[in-house]
Amino acid sequence: MCGIVGIIGVEPVADRLVDALRRLEYRGYDSAGIATITADGLDRRRAEGKLNNLAGKLANDPLAGTIGIGHTRWATHGGATETNAHPHIAGKVAVVHNGIIENFKDLLQDLARDGYFPQSQTDTESVALWVTRELDRGAAPRQAVANTLPKLRGTFGLVFLFDGDDKLLIAARQGSPLAIGHGQTEMYLGSDAFALAPFTNQITYLDEGDWAIVTPGKAEIFDFDGNPVQRIRQTSSASAALADKGNHRHFMAKEIYEQPETISHTLAHYVDLSEEKVALREDLPFDFAKLSRLTITACGTAFYAGLVAKYWFERYARLAVDVDVASEFRYREPPLADNGLTLVISQSGETADTLAALRYAAKSGQHIAALVNVQESTIARESHVVFPTLCGPEIGVASTKAFTAQLTALASLAIAAGQARGTISASEAHTLVRALVELPSAVSEVLRHEKSIEGIARHLARASDVLYLGRGQMFPLALEGALKLKEISYIHAEGYAAGELKHGPIALVNEEMPVVVVAPSDDLMEKTLSNMHEVSARGGKIILITDAEGRAQAGDGISDIIEMPRVHPFVAPILSSIPVQLLAYHTAVFMGTDVDQPRNLAKSVTVE
Ligand code: F6R
């Protein structure tokens, strides 16, 4: 998660770029840099470490220019060195980037054949070089960027600055946020409205897949397919408040949309993205190879993340796993195996039952690990090792981005455990890591289907009861789907393992009862299809969340299908979370409930 900024000014911009970066430092601060156009062409200053180092450098060696871009970095590819700091300059273009270019190695290989080589170890430089090659082949800046964007796989917020044109910035957004700021005579770009608050409160947010040509007084915006689009200009309240909904109606929607970025950011903590292998930064007080048992305990959505993890740890690490709701675990007082690890999962790190379960396990001599989002929390402080989720503050009461970040971290830990225990080979581990690396762009793709999910939610909002079904690692997703729907729409919903349908819940099925089936195509799909036939034979309406192959396999008799891109089955539970969340969100919006603060709930449950 990096911060980016751009200014087309009438006055010198260097100091203001640094000022904006200061407001973005929460997104990363292991190096920073700015680039401008001076009388001699493109120039830049970059420095390792906190922004003050860059400010110090600029004090001794100022940078002129009335147009510029800036970046504060949280390293993913390549160490936190000055060489890897942004902006990256190649020929006549400078670029700043927030996100991960997944196919940068392929791009660099192609570029090398034409004699274009990087100076840094970053994924970003591949973008600068690709645009440069387009410029060298005669394309104008606008066309050079238009030719480059379709080549990029992954997530990006990008801002380009071109030598010889001090009235042009080009920006693009896929999975990483980007806002355009409108001034009187100046134009601005930033990762969020808060960065631009000192300059303007007139903000246009780019949507997923948008890119924009920004010139004085004007922003021309195009969608993913290159069609001109209008995005509303709004007055931001970001100057006053740190937490801002951006162009979303609710924090929950904003947080759903942040997931390509929050998954990438969390992944970059657990995985060496250049080598594509898991590389844990934590000093482990236990050895995965020697663990006798893993006990996972948590509440609500975090508990469901633990349930998914059980499938992963058992399958890939052959490690026996118990998963328990913390409020039961603590009162049941279970005997715990010697040399066992208890992993508690909590977004807030303050949930009273989870904390009590942790304390019970610690007293029983377990190794204690915590997977938390709030790293200064009580649960984090009382654990032997803390695994972070890096998704920033979650404001919406219904957990969304914390859930997918928890799953991302748990998937990485399961691979690490599998390798330590010798139950997966290096090449299997690489395949699984690759699947994780490719996930953020698949999430972006699902987000582009929001409109059709909204249409399905319109029908769902008329139901008084909804059943969710899933099999194998999709069973916890059925539970999570039902929880999400009931907590924000107040519609009664139940999640079941698909195989349990015939043992009771099928009695509920009739024409009034929508049944949401979470079933991406995998080796269990056929079995789930039989359950779907059992539902449709009784007049039940099926909403199927699947991929293209699942759609083909399912055939007729399905009321609605939400189609996701096909991903490796390992990461399918993470991707399936997105339609499940959007379905609940839009249903709640149709119901007119208080989406971000549903009745009777609280974000942090510090009572028993
Ligand atoms: C549901 C939800 C809750 C929390 C649960 C645990 O959307 O947000 O079920 O998951 O209260 O909270 P944490 O993770 O803070 O321990």
Can you summarize this structure?
This is Glutamine--fructose-6-phosphate aminotransferase [isomerizing]. The chain is of the alpha/beta class and 608 residues long.
Question: What's the alpha carbon Rg, rounded to whole Å?
Answer: 25 Å
Helix content: 25-40%
Outline: globular
Q: Describe the strand arrangement of the main beta sheet, using strand numbers.
A: 3-2-4-1-10-9-11-15
Q: Superfamily at the CATH H level of the largest domain?
A: Aminohydrolase, N-terminal nucleophile (Ntn) domain
Structural class: alpha/beta
Instruction: Report the strand count.
Output: 27
Ligands bound, unique? fructose -6-phosphate
Question: What's the story with the biggest beta sheet?
Answer: 8 strands, antiparallel
Tally of distinct domains = 3
Function: Catalyzes the first step in hexosamine metabolism, converting fructose-6P into glucosamine-6P using glutamine as a nitrogen source.
Enzyme class: transferase
InterPro entries: GATase_2_dom (IPR017932), GFAT (IPR005855), GFAT_N (IPR047084), GlmS/AgaS_SIS (IPR035466), GlmS/FrlB_SIS (IPR035490), Ntn_hydrolases_N (IPR029055), SIS_dom (IPR001347), SIS_dom_sf (IPR046348)
Protein name: Glutamine--fructose-6-phosphate aminotransferase [isomerizing]
Describe, in plain words, how this protein is organized in 3D.
This protein is α/β, with parallel strands linked by helices and 608 residues long. It folds into three domains: 3-243, Glutamine Phosphoribosylpyrophosphate, subunit 1, domain 1; 255-437, Glucose-6-phosphate isomerase like protein, domain 1 (Rossmann fold, 3-Layer(aba) Sandwich), CATH 3.40.50; 446-591, Rossmann fold (3-Layer(aba) Sandwich). 36% of the residues lie in helices and 23% in strands. The strands form five sheets. Strands 3-2-4-1-10-9-11-15 form an eight-stranded antiparallel β-sheet. Strand 2 (31-38) and strand 3 (41-48) form a beta hairpin. Helix 9 (300-317) runs antiparallel to helix 17 and helix 17 (475-489) packs parallel to helix 20 (572-591). The longest helix is centred in the C-terminal third of the chain and has 20 residues, at 401-420. The radius of gyration is 25 Å and the shape is globular. The mean pLDDT is 93. The chain binds fructose -6-phosphate (F6R). Fructose -6-phosphate is lined by residues 299-302, 346-348, 351, 354, 398-399, 483, 487, 604-605. Residues 2-217 form the Glutamine amidotransferase type-2 domain. Its EC number is 2.6.1.16. It is an enzyme of class 2 (transferase).
